[in-house]
Amino acid sequence: MTLALAPVVRRQTIADALRRTALRLPAKTGIVCGSTTWTYAEFDARVTRLAAGLASIGVAEGDKVAVLARNSPGFAALRFALARRGAVMVPINFMLTADEVAFILRHAGAKTLATDSGLAELAQAAARLDTQVAQFIWLPSEDPSQPVGGMHSFEQLAACRDTLPEPQLTSTDVAQIVYTSGTESSPKGAMLTHDAVLWQYVSCVIDAEIAEQDVALHALPLYHCAQLDVFFGPAIYMGSTNIITSKPVPDNLLPMIERFGITSFFAPPTVWIALLRSPLFDPAKLGQLAKGYYGASIMPVEVMKEIATRLPNVRLWNLYGQTEIAPLATMLGPEDQLRKPGSCGKAVRHVETRVVNDQMQDVKPGEVGEIVHRSPHLMLGYFHDDERTKAAFEGDWFHSGDLATIDEEGYITVVDRKKDMIKTGGENVASREVEEMIYRLPQVSEVAVIGLPDPKWVEAVTAVIVLKADQALDEATVIAHCTRHMAHFKAPKRVFFAEALPKNPSGKLLKRELRTRFAQG
After folding, report:
1. Is 487 left (phi over 0), alpha (psi -120 to 50) or beta?
2. Which of 15, 208, 311, 367 is the 20 to 30 A CA-CA neighbour of 107?
């Protein structure tokens, strides 16, 4: 006979992780953002008071609280306060329109919406579009800002001295619903439990070497699961010092890396490329930077070589995954960056990954198949969407929607999203393969390859190129370069030049926008 214990005795939630770090390292600087600096003890105490403040305005266990805000100390505290209250966080992409935000608010059933001064107008407009939102929380920003009238103030809520009742929460309760930014008609809400996120933290700590001594710069949006749960959360779990900013641009990032002695930094390849091209880039001022991480898309091999040359002390990791797996799935470590260029590596500590054909059979080395996963990181399913949940877990594996090859050593290389594979003249072309070829041209700063409708080819391979400053290039040269080095059907049929490529706040290229923009080209 086993004695029944209260769930709290064995509980491990996201908020418990912060509390335990604060008990271990109370005087260590935990958060720096703008003019705000909190030790871990101060951070944890503020989170507890904020959780009590949430309870005082009627936020109950299990309630969905949406967050539409840029990176700030308020965002950081709210993330853990919601977990401590037992509420469910619903982070929202601040680049969405009011209609798109309203869809998420309605679908999640959020009654409380947290926002900041810069996004308050969008938040209020979205809330008016037939949602259940009944109250707002104002969050202070990185830069000084004034509270918005009619909203509960973060500072007032965080001053609450009420005793917070112990939530009847377990590690298997839902901690957050993260809506995918996919290309389908409506986004899907991935339900992630506390233990899914925490298992993922452990994989990050072990395989990405997140460490207590890190001074980590968090510059990509915290609403995005990569910055929030691959870097910020594990850094809190370990007790790193966390520098937070809402401005992921070279003019802000490069001085911050020097000023704070940043040792650990994550950014998608597009941001790394922008840093390398900036006139402020000076390797001598970035000497303490030791760990560099990238994700969202594969680092072009030529850019990787440039980083290795200009920042020789920086060890690089490629981290691959998606929202539904909290989000880390595979990793390519520093020792394999140039040995396995373009690969996303192997499954991390708590993930089992295969590359399979349509019959769920493992593909042979070099053959293209779909990446599927099993892991305690995985979501419970899509909120209020049994049909798409069932399809995603067909065959008792999670289907990523990414096409990849696997080599004899077990290293996986993503060749494309299923939706981005170009079907031209009866042949399949992986856009990334063409992009890698075009990156070999020294004039190219960035490139995206897409398929555009074509009466002859059905889809024409099309390149959209951003040139380096003071460089010149023409369509004929690009096409000739590609046809010299790859099969002719893979070479672009059209080449456009642009001043910039559209990206979401996490730095991911928005190819659907390029398809729309150039479809009439």
Report:
1. beta
2. 15
